[in-house]
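Hey, can you fold this one?
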Amino acid sequence: MVVCGDDGLAQRLAAELRGVYGEQVTLVVPATGRRVRQPVVGRARAASAALLDRMGAAVGRSAQNAPGAPPPDPSGDRVVQASEPNEAAFIEAGVDRATALALVYDDDETNVRAALTARRLNPRLRLVLRLYNRRLGQHIEELLDQAAALASGADGRPGDASTVVLSDADTAAPALAATALTGTSKVVQTDGLILRAVERQPPAPGQVAVPGLATLALLSATSNDPAGADGSEGSGDQGPQLLPDAAAVRAATGRATIVLEQVSYSGPSLRPGRAGVPFASLFSRRLRWSLAGLVACVIGLAVALMVVADDHPLHATYVTLLNLFAINEPALNRPTSEQVLQLLSGLVGLLLLPVLLAAVLEGLGTFRSASALRKPPRGLSGHVVLLGLGKIGTRVLTRLRELDIPVVCVEADPDARGMPTARRLRVPVVLGDVTQEGVLEAAKIHRASALLALTSADPTNLEAVLYARSLRSELRVVLRLYDDDFATAVYRTLRAAHPHALTRSRSVSHLAAPAFAGAMFGRQILGAIPVERRVLLFAALEVAGQPRLEGRTVAEAFRAGAWRVLALDTSVGEGGAVPSGLIWDLPDTYVLKAGDRVVLAATRRGLAELLGRRRPRTSG
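Sure. Predicted structure:
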């Protein structure tokens, strides 16, 4: 496996492939620039790796002293330093002999150019690309797959080449948005497939727990404390237990659970944006009420004239409008009642002129400011304050607006990536440094329901959360933090200082790395949900060739703490990566056949073991 990247996702992906799947990894990083601290993937594995490193120190010294040897890396990966991912760097990294290549640079153009070079160098290479542009990703995926098919047909050798385009922002956005909404809902949504889970507190004495489709996890027994925040799937006594069996669920009294509530298909997840400006936003509420009052006065005058003059309704309305615009003959020889109505109509006409002028000015101002940033409305409350409009913040903003959740964004850079999206969605934006006083107050943080701190700087996110909690101690907060140890310390401190407020820390690379790692083995990871500081994966797999699934019943195929079959895909011949027809209420006696395709939940270790990338764990 070869991983190329310039940020924390590359480091975490390499650690995922090495620590969970036991793969040999070559890491290609820039020759200059700040190196991100290697993430820890399991304290036990880290200790074991350190022991193995000490045991092989003698052999390593001779290799390191050899001419042209790559620089040593504490993680055990082979590291190739290259200023850019060109053909020379790929040859040095062994891409021509590799099974899979992950291109996870932060720049889309760099990943596309590198993918074209790698496909030309090795047509049978499995490619995984990190692209933010969805439309470009679709075209590149089709192009590279076509090139691989032509190359395989030319030399007559069967190839296992495939191209998978993923986005770390799209992978993490549903979990971040769901956490901000309720703090407990966990949703995986991929091209219409919806897997919805909910966190349920233990029932009170005398109450019966509401069953779900499946129990996905048992949370920590001590205040949801993120034991093992390093991201491992070990089932310690204090940490969460993923995919427990029925006996473990019955024995776990007083522990909250994560229960699967729904598995469904609802069509494409992205709704087209509404074009134009809504009528309600053209005019202010005060102006709309003024116009409605004048219309009511005109109707009342027309009805009064119809009664007084015994006139036809249409003719009475016509005369009233003439009087309103002062273009009718004076009612000199008419009865007094009609003269009074004419004077009142003229008075209403005088009141109508400034209202019409105000309507024209407001309408022009609305169209002029349609491309400008909106300010938070004066009476806004119950909204979500989103800090940062980068890649992650933009995707989360889109997801929140799809759910019709009011959002106020805070961004220091007026040219940030998400500014056009905020203008298009007409979302209020406060320009300013979130660490400065008055910025969060301008975003109405004291009346907000949640705060999402998604900037790329951990100290900025922490400072914003601490300041927001000083203004409102019960505010629900979600932090984007990369460093696991730092995230654990922040989580525990905030939980201790504010025990009645919801606090969550999320790492985008921690949520995205399992999906990228899974795609490097030629399978489709549908998504992941965070379980405290751990990750539970959802994948769509073919039963054929899986000895732990094929020929077994659903009950026999279930492995506690490793994997569990959730649904059966009934779509035939479509060949898509995402299931479109699902049967989720499978009986335990259903026998999985070679032609079946299933959706299952799995831990990272369990998925690696299921697909033969790791030896089964024994109790001895």
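DSSP finds 19 helices and 22 strands in the chain. Let me know if you want another pass with a different chain boundary.
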